[in-house]
């Protein structure tokens, strides 16, 4: 196993959401965690969501990193930190698909045992389609990855079903049913209540979101520290 493959086998499931710019990574993550669709997000930084989800019928601590698409290549930190990856492209954006293909190649080389889901988002924009489903499905198959095409905007159910079953696969690959959500996060990391964060996005009078325990906004330095501390587990 390569050094980059040495990930924790207990504790929270760690999933990184990767992909090109504006493909819907944040919309997908928030849709999955809160069931809500929110149109616009800040995009200059990584967001780390810590939560407890029902995975395969049992509570499971999970950390999902919604990465910022500011760099072309997948960052070393993301590759080391996560044990599973959701690689997102938009079906109406060929360039985002090429980027997803490069990411798959990189994952194949550096994290060959990781679970990977290739996700073609924005299927509601079929009239603007630039990526054929069969082509993307074949690419995923060639990299032993799962594949799904969906619309985060239009179908909460598809997002939930797809990511629930991916989480189940990640958990079963690990073979551990429990973990803890305490993690190893630098005290300097800015923590903000997700209720407050989402409250400002969706309005104060909306019902409270699903039980997300914590949202952490990571800058580059903080992300590096997180990876360093995750290696010490
Ligand atoms: N039509 C359509 N638009 C979507 C869908 N999902 C997301 N969007 C829109 O796509 C744009 C980008 O969404 P984000 O979630 O911010 O994308 P991102 O990949 O996190 O963006 P960056 O981090 O800035 O690269 C927003 O305007 C969303 O409203 C979808 O399923 N269909």
TrEMBL record:
It comes from Petrolisthes cinctipes (Flat porcelain crab). Belongs to the small GTPase superfamily. Ras family. Keywords: Hydrolase. It catalyses: GTP + H2O = GDP + phosphate + H(+). Its EC number is 3.6.5.2. InterPro entries: P-loop_NTPase, Ras-related_GTPase, Small_GTPase. This is small monomeric GTPase. The keyword Hydrolase applies. GO terms for molecular function: G protein activity; GTP binding.
């Amino acid at each position: 196993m390569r050094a980059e493959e040495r990930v924790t086998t207990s504790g929270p499931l760690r999933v990184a959401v990767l992909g090109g710019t504006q493909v819907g990574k944040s919309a997908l993550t928030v849709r999955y965690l809160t069931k809500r669709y929110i149109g616009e997000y800040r995009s200059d930084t990584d967001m780390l969501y810590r939560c407890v989800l029902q995975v395969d019928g049992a509570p499971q601590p999970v950390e999902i990193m919604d990465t910022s698409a500011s760099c072309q290549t997948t960052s070393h930190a993301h590759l080391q930190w996560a044990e599973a990856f959701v690689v997102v492209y938009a079906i109406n954006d060929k360039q985002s698909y090429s980027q997803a293909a490069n990411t798959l190649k990189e994952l194949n080389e550096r994290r060959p045992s990781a679970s990977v889901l290739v996700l073609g988002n924005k299927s509601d924009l079929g009239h603007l389609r630039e990526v054929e489903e069969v082509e993307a499905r074949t690419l995923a198959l060639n990299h032993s990855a799962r594949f799904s095409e969906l619309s985060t905007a239009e179908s909460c159910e598809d997002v939930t079903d797809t990511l629930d079953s991916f989480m189940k696969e990640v958990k079963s690959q690990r073979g551990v049913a429990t973990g803890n959500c305490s993690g190893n996060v630098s005290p300097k990391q800015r923590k903000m209540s997700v209720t407050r964060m989402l409250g400002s996005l969706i309005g104060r009078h909306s019902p409270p979101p699903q039980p997300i325990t914590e949202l952490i906004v990571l800058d580059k330095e903080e992300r590096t520290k997180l990876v360093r501390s995750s290696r010490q587990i």
